[in-house]
Structure formats: C-alpha cells, structure tokens
Design a protein that fits this description.
There is one protein chain. By secondary structure, the chain is an all-alpha fold. It has one domain. It has helices at residues 2-9, 12-49, 54-74. Helix 2 packs antiparallel against helix 3 (54-74). The relative contact order is 0.11. The model has no long low-confidence stretch (mean pLDDT 90).
C-alpha cells in the first residue's frame, strides 16, 4: 500500500495536472466575475430597451460554455485542457470520461 502511494506521488503527469488545475481555478474566478458582468449588462439592457442584447447573449453563452469546460477539467471529468490549450468552443466536442 505504502509503495503504491509513493509511486503515485512520483508521477510527473499528476503534478502537472495539479498545476494546471490551480491555474484554471484562478482563471475560473475571473470567468465568474465576467459572467456576473454579463448578467448585470443583460438586466440593464432588458430594463432600458425591453430586450436582451444579442451580442451580450452570445458572449454569455460562450463564456458559460468555457466555464463548464473548466469545471469538467477540475472535477476530472475530462483530460482535455480548456482554452488556451484547446479551441475556445471545444466543450461541445468533449468526450467525457466514463468512470464508475
């Protein structure tokens, strides 16, 4: 058992993933702030014009999809690194890992 743990701790791939996870956790914090800005802009648009702004709507959808990709990576549901290490719209094509 102890030998298996020591072996796992020496895997470079695991430590690389941990570093990427820390980076993407920080990026995700910024993405969440941007999503709140999108929400506030859309509320303002609806209040002042009576309709949602199409450009902000598309940006919000794209940003939400990116946020989802980051969450999939952080929760080990995909090995595919999010943008900038893959295409911006890669989330729709992701193959999720089948784990018991």
């Amino acid at each position: 058992m102890q030998e298996q743990i020591n072996e796992n701790l020496k895997k470079i791939e695991t430590w690389k993933r941990v570093i990427f996870m820390l980076v993407f956790a920080a990026i995700d914090s910024l993405v969440k702030l941007l999503l709140w800005l999108v929400i506030l802009l859309q509320v303002g648009s609806v209040l002042f014009t009576g309709a949602a702004n199409a450009n902000i709507l598309n940006f919000g959808r794209s940003l939400s999809t990116y946020h989802y990709h980051i969450l999939l990576f952080l929760t080990f549901n995909t090995e595919q690194l999010p943008f900038p290490f893959s295409d911006w719209n890669e989330t729709a094509k992701l193959e999720l890992l089948d784990k018991p």
